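FORM 7B - TANDEM STRUCTURE REPORT

SECTION 1: FIRST PROTEIN
SEQUENCE AND C-ALPHA CELLS:
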Amino acid sequence: MVVPGHRQAAPGPGQGGGHLFHLAVGAPGAGVPDRRSGEPRQGGGAGGGGVGGVDRRQGPPGGGAVSRGNATVWKRVGVGAGVAVLAGLVLWGSLASSNGRGKTVEVEKAGRRTVVAKVKASGTVNPRTKVEIQAKVMGEIIDLPVREGDRVKAGQVVAEIEKALYLAARDQARAALDQATVNLERARIEAADAAVTRKRVEKLFADGIASQEQLDRARLAHESALIAVRAQEETIRQARSALQRAIDDLDRTTIRSPIDGVVTALNVEKGETAIIGTMNFAGSVLMTIGDLSEMLVEIDVAESEVVSLAVGQAAAVRVDAIPDTTLAGRVVEIGSSGIKQVDVVKFRVKVALQDPDQRVRPGMTARVDVTTATAADVVAVPQQAVQTRWLDGRGKEVEFREGDASRREVKVVYAMAGGKAVRHEVTTGIHDELWVEVKEGLAEGTEVIVGPYRVLRQLKDGDPVKVEKAKTRPTAASGEGEGKAGADRDS
C-alpha cells in the first residue's frame, strides 16, 4: 500500500509497476535497498505488519533493481554542495590570509640627492633673423641669379622683374610733370597781367573815369588768375609724386637682399609671374633669406610650465638629425600672449643656440630641456610616493567634497613602521622626472611606500602592509631613467 495523497506511477512496459517516491509500508516480498549498505530492508509481515523503513526509492514489485536516474540526481546534488563548500573555504582562507599579512607594497628609503627641475618641449630650428622676400611690383621674373643655399650680402641683387611697363610709366609721369610745369608758368603770367589791369582800373575808377562794373570785372579776373596759379601748383605736386612713385616702382623691379645670410628657401623659377600682396590677399614669397650665424629653437610651452621660465635660463638642445650631440642654449624670448592649441593654452618660447653646429639647418626638429631650478643635497623621494589626500578638522582622511571648507588638501608620504602604513604630511619643493624634493615632514633614511600605484592610491594611515621588495633607482636626477616614474605609477 502507499501513503494516502501520493500518486503512484503507471507500470512501465515489462515491469510489474513504476517507481515513485513514497513510504513503503509492509509490502510483502518487497526488497527496498538500504542507501548505505545496498542490502534490502525487511518490511513488515504479510498483510502489512510493521513499517519496513522510510525510503525515497522503490524497486519494482517482487524485488526489482534501484532506478539509475534517481541515483544520478543524488550524486549531482552531492558534488555541487561539495564544490560550493570548497570555494567558500578557499575564499575565507584567502581573506583571512590577506588580512593577516596586510597589503603587499614596495618601499624605498628617502635619501639625499640633487634634484634638477626642467621644462621639456620640442620645436623647430630657425635662424634668429629671417626675411621673406616678396615682390612689391607685379611682373614676369626675368632673372633669378641665386639658388637655394647660396650666401648673399645685404644689397645683392637676388631677382629681376620685367621693366618695360615701369619704364613707360616713369616716362609718362615725367612728361606729365613737364606739362604741369608749363601750365604753372602760363598761369603765373596771366595772374601778373591781371594784377596790372586791376591796378590801372582802380586808378581810373578813383579819377572817375572807370565805372564800378569795370572795377569789379578787373578784380574778379585777378582773383581767378591767382586761383589758377594755386591749382597748377597742386598739379605740380601731384605730378612730382606720380613721377616718384613710377621711379620707385621701376627700382622695385630689381629685388635686393636686405641682410647678409643664406637663401634658405627659393619658391619661384625664372619666367614665373610675381604677384604682389593686397589687404585681402597675400603676395607670393619669392624666397627666404636667413642669418645662419644665429640659430634658435622655437618651442611651445604649456601655461602651467611657462611661469617657471625666465630669459637667460640655460638649456640643453638635442637635434633629432644629430642624436649624438647636445648643444648649449639659452632662453632669449618668452611670448607675452598665449596660443590656444586644442583647449590647451601655450606660449611661444625662443631658445638661442650658443655655439651652432654647421650641420644644424633651418626646419630641423629639436628637443629642448630648460633647467628652471636646482636643489642640491636635499631629501627626495620618488614622485609616486607623494600622494594627495583630504583631511577633516581632526586629521582624518576623507573624500574630496566640492565647496567644503572644513576639508583641507595635503601632500602626504606613507612610511612603513611596525607592519603598518604611517602617514606623513610633507612640504614638497621642486621635482624632476623621478624625484620630488621634500622640504619638511620626512627624515632622511625613512622607508617610504612607493608602490604599486593601485595600492598606494587607496592606502590610508594605519593600514597593515607587507614589503614585497626594495626598489633600486639611479642616484642622478638629470635624465636617468626617463619615463620610469610614469611607468611605476601605472603598475
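SECTION 2: SECOND PROTEIN
SEQUENCE AND C-ALPHA CELLS:
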Amino acid sequence: MSLNEAADIYISINSVPQFDELPCNGTNDIISYFAPGLSDGYIIKINRTLNKGTPIKLKFDMDALITVDNSITRLVDLGNNVFKLVLLKDTNLFEFSVKGQFVLLPPYIISFKISGEENCAKPNFGYFERHPVGAEKRPEVPNLFCGKRKAINQLIVNGVESKPGDWPWHVAIFRLERATLKYICGGTLVSNIFVLTAAHCVTINGAAVLPEILGISLGKHNLIGGDVGSQEKQVHQIIVHEEFIHKTLDNDIALLKMKTSVEYSSVIQPACIWFDKAKEKLPPGQVLGTVTGWGFDQTESLSLVLREATMPIVQDIDCIRSKPLFYSVILNGKKFCAGHRNGTSACNGDSGGGFLVYIPYEDSPFIKKYVKGSWYVRGIVSLSVAQQDTALCDPNEYVVFTDIAAYTDWIYDHMD
C-alpha cells in the first residue's frame, strides 16, 4: 500500500490529520500522522499483516506515553523509553498513539523492532519541526528525562561522602548468607524494574545464584540503618550475559529484574543508558565519569555512607604500560580503564556500580526550562589490581570497567 493510500484510509475513518511522515527512513509501511498543535500527540500506523503473538519493541528518544487498544494489544513499559507490545489478534492494520511529556516536544522513534527485526535503522529525526505544527527544536540527545537528580545538593569533590539524593540510581545488592543479608555489590537502576550490575556479583563459578537469595535496596545513603524514602525489592530474575567468563571477567554484565516496580522519588531515579553518539556531545578532551559505592576505604573496611569519586577514562595503551602482565590479558575491546593512580579509586565492594558520565544538552530555550543534562551509564565496575599478598584492591592502579557501549543492544534485548 502506498503512503497516499494509507493516508486516504486514515482520513476517511478518523479526524482529518494535516500531515503524515515516515518516522523510519526506508520503511514505507510505518507511518506517523499528526495535526497542528500536537495536543493529541501523533498516531503510528503499521500497514502490514501481523499475526497474533507478534512482539513489537519500541524505543523513543525521550519520555513517551503510548496508548493502545487493550483488546488487541498487550503493552509493557520497560523503562528508559522502551516499550514492548504483543499482539493478541491477527491484524492487517495496526495503530497506536504516542504523546510526549511536553506537548511541543513529541518523542521520535529511534528503534522499531518487529519480531526482533529492526525496522528503524535510520530514524527520521526532526520531521515534526519541518511542518507548521508548533514543535520545538531540541538537541539530538536521547532520554532527556532520565539521569536527573531531583534532590538539590552541592556537587562534591573526589573520594568523599555524597549526600542523600545525589546518586538516586545507585542501588545496594545484598545476598543471603547463613540467614543474614550481606552487602555484596552495587548496581544501577535503569528502569522501574531493572537494575544493571556486574555478572560476577550475582554468580558463583559463572552460574547465576538463585534470585531468592538476593535483595535490592534503592534510595540508600547509609549502608546500615534506615534512610528516608528507601525501598527494598526482591529479585524475580537474574539475566547473566550468555558469554560471561568468570575466570577473566569477559562480558561481566547482568540485569536483575525485580518482582515489583519501584516508585520514583527524590532519592530513586533511573540513570540513562549510553548511546552511540554520546561522546560527540561531550567537550573535547578527557571523558570524566563518577563512580559511587560503599566499597573499602582507607581503613580497609566498608564505608557506612555512600561515597563518590570522579576519574578519567584512560587509553588502553596507557593502562597496559602501567602494568603489562595484568592489563594486556584483561583488556579485550569490550572493557576500558579509568582512574588517577593516586589513591582515588573503586575498590572491593564497589563492583557492579556504574561509571556515570554527565552529558550536557545543547542550548535550547525550551529545554533550558527543564533540564541541563543527564547522567549516562558508561561502564560497570568489574575488577582492579590487588595489593600484594592481599585480596584488597590497590587504589593506586587503574580500575577496569565493562564497556556499556559494547552492550547496549544486549541490554535492551533483555529488558522485557
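SECTION 3: OBSERVATIONS ON SECOND PROTEIN
The radius of gyration is 23 Å.
The first helix runs from residue 3 to 13.

SECTION 4: SIGNATURE
Preparer initials: ____
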